[in-house]
Amino acid sequence: MVETFEDGGGFVRPGALHWSRRLLRKTIHLLSYHLILKRESTRVSHAAGFRLIVRPTVFHPRYFLTSEFLAAFIGGLDLSGRRTLDVGTGTGILALAAARAGAANVIALDINPHAARTAADNAQTNGLGDRVTALCSNLLSALAPRPLFDVILSNPPYFPGEPRDLADRAWHAGLDYRHVASLFDEARDRLAPGGRIYLVLSSLSDLDYLGALIGRAGFHARLVAKRWILIEYLFIYELQAPRSFMIAPS
Fold first, then answer.
1. How far apart are CA 82 and CA 99, in angstroms?
2. 4-245: in CATH 3.40.30.10
3. What secondary structure does DSSP assign to 33-44, as a single string?
4. Of the residues 2, 57, 101, 145, which has the fewest C-beta atoms closer than 10 A?
């Protein structure tokens, strides 16, 4: 098992990961990539109480448990009337969970156009199409500076390394996390005063590096949920920007 500890800011940092677990992670990814991520057929699945279509190249929430873990956590929040953003939406499961938790409107973003289309279709199928809007976007680049959001959700790719293709972008974030490095700065600039960010990471991520990116953007991280699955801990963090970083309402 991976040993972890919390630093003073609430950010969990991993101890040494045994070589056998690193090898197992690589093996699991290789099998997942060829058997799940690279599949050529559209599937229908059920996760977090939703009926979801999963198009080719789209992150599958039944096989990769991070999205369902965060969706369950979102279900315990009161998002009544909140303006919500889901970055890296995949099937749209987090956006749907936010709408079910009472969010007034949810924008769901994904760099994968197949994912954006899938999220839009799943919102309609689950009767939430009037409150969920899906867009193809590299992080938050497709959004205007306003409006600001009360809650931002993300299940980002959290493994370092260059993705093989579009499907693998759901798993690998590039060298030095270059594909998601600006996520926290972009999210901070569109977070309403008093807003929160919730994201899920893994003990197999480079948490020291990601923690530095989060801190550089001015956020305080608080661990709010943890779950052990097979070879890793999944962590859900709540990020809150200090007042000096918050943007005044327009």
1. 9
2. no
3. IIIIIT--S-EE
4. 145
Q: What is the pLDDT of residues 195-228, one digit of tens each?
A: 999 999 998 889 999 999 999 999 999 999 999 9
Over residues 135-160, the pLDDT tens digits come to 999 999 999 988 899 999 999 998 88
CA 157/CA 155 separation, integer angstroms:
7
Distance (Å, whole) CA 205 – CA 44:
29
**Nearest-angstrom CA–CA distance, 78 and 96:** 14
In this prediction, residue 68 carries a pLDDT of 95
How far is it, in rounded angstroms, from Cα 23 to Cα 12?
A: 22
Count the Cβ atoms, other than its own, within 10 Å of residue 250: 7
Distance between CA atoms of residues 119 and 96, nearest Å:
9
Which H or E run includes 125? helix 113-125
Nearest partner of 183 among 223, 210, 204, judged by Cα: 210
Here the tokens at position 54 are 């999963």
Q: Residues 135, 107: contact at Cβ < 8 Å?
A: yes
Task: Decide: helix, strand or coil at residue 209.
Answer: helix
Q: Sketch the domain layout of the chain as residue ranges.
A: 4-245
